[in-house]
Fold:
Amino acid sequence: MATLILKVTEKCNSNCYYCDVVRKEKTGQTMSLQTLGTVFRRVDEYLRKNPGERMEILWHGGEPLLPGADYYRRAIALFNRHCAETRNSIHHSIQTNLTCFHEEFVDIFRSLGVTAAGTSYDPEPCIRGPGENIDSEAYNRKFIRSLAVLERNGFGWGMIYVVTKKSLAKPLEVFHFLSNLSLSGGFNINPVLIYDEERRGIAITPEEYVDFLGAIFPVWWNHRERYPDVQPFKSLVRTIIEGQLSLGCVESGDCTYHHVNVTPDGETSQCGRSADWGLLQYGNIEDKSLAEILGDPQRGQLEERVRKLKDKDCRGCRFWEICHGGCPLDAYSKHKSFLFKSEWCESRRGFIERYFEPLTKVRYQPGRFSISGPSICHGDGGEIGRSDGKTD
Structure:
C-alpha cells in the first residue's frame, strides 16, 4: 500500500525547538482547494488503473487542523466527488499536535473514516509551545483539553515522545508519565535528530539513546501486559521473539516506491525531509500522475542503496534484515550521499545486544526474513515515527 503524505499546510501554532518545518523560509501557504482536488483526482486515477491496490492518505503539516473545519468540509466534498468509486480503497489517517482539535472536527474525522489520531507530546518545559519563548504551559493546557474531546468522542490516539538532552536524566519518570497519560493507547520513544549547530544543546548520541531505552526496558518487559504498545520494544518482541516482521519505514529498506510527499503548492518528493532539503523531488502533482511520481527514476538511488549496503557497510551484520542500514535521509545528513548506513543503526544494534537479548534470553537469528517480507510503517515515509523536524 502506498502512502501519500498530504501536507495541506506548513503553518503551525507551535514552535517546537527541534522542528525544522517552522524554520523554513516559506511556511505560510495552505493548499488550495484546486490543488487538493487534483490530488484526489490523481489518487482516483491511480487506483482505477491499479485495481486491487490501496492507498493511505496521511493528513500532515505543519499543523493540519489549522486551516479549520470549513476547509475540511470542502475537502471531504472534493474527495467524495473525485473518489466516489475508489474511496473504499483509500484509508485516511492524521498526524496532529491536537491543540486545534475541537467538537467541530468530530464529524469531519468520522466522515473520513479516521478512528484514531497520531500526535506527539513533550512534557519538558521550553521544548514545544507557541511563541518565541515556547510557551509550554499554554501548549499543555490546549493539548489536554483537546485530548479530552478526542477521548470523549471515542477516538483512539497514539503519540511520539522525542528523547532530547533534557530527557536523559529521568527515563523512568518519562516512561511512567507517558504510560499514565496514554494507558489505553501507545507511544513511540524516538531520538531527537538535529542537523544544525544552533540546537546542539538538545541533541543526543546513539549511545545515549541506547542507555535511555535500556533504563526503561526492564520495567516494560516485566510488566508488558499492563503497559500499552510501547515502541520500539513491542515491534522488536514481535520480530525477534514472535517471528512477525514488524518494521518501521526507517528500518524496512522498502520505502523506495511506496511514499509520496505533497507540499501545499503541489510539489512532490519522497518524504517531508527530502522536501525540506530539496532532495528526491519528483515534480508537481498538477503536471504528473501518481504513477509517474511513484516511478520516478530518482527513486532508483534508494534501491541501489539497499543493494550496496548489503555488500558494503552492512556486510556480515546479523541485524541486516531488521535494519537495512537505517533511514536514507539520516545517512544523507551526515555523508551527503544515500549510499551509507545511518549512524542510528548502532543504536538498534546496541539496544538489542546490550539490553534486549540479555533480558529476554532470546538471541536474534538472521535468515528468518527478507526485504520483501511484510513491514509496517509507524508513520509515513518516516514522518509519524520520526523526530527530525516534524512529528505532528
